[in-house]
Design a protein that fits this description.
globular, alpha+beta, 3-stranded mixed beta sheet, Ribosomal Protein S5, domain 2, 83 residues
Length: 83
């Protein structure tokens, strides 16, 4: 699915960076990016992190609720559940 890496920045809001690779073309790549941005907002990461997510076109077919749950689990793992 995705890999998340975070650098702690305690006095700034969290930011999301996306690296999406897609063999299906730009339409699929942009759909993956839109879904990841929405899932990031819904997952509600704690403030103070820069998060980079690497993904590919396998995320096009995944159910949105599963995407949110997986992203939330990855964010908790890299942020340690919060500062």
């Amino acid at each position: 699915m995705a890999v998340a890496v975070a650098n702690q920045r305690p006095d700034e809001p969290s930011r999301l960076g996306l690296a999406v690779r897609c063999k299906r073309g730009a339409v699929a790549r942009n759909r993956v990016k839109r879904r990841l941005r929405a899932a990031f907002l819904q997952a509600g990461p704690v403030d103070g992190y820069d998060v980079v997510v690497r993904a590919d076109d396998r995320l096009v077919g995944i159910e949105y609720a599963t995407l949110v749950a997986d992203l939330k689990m990855a964010l908790n793992r890299v942020t340690g559940g919060g500062p």
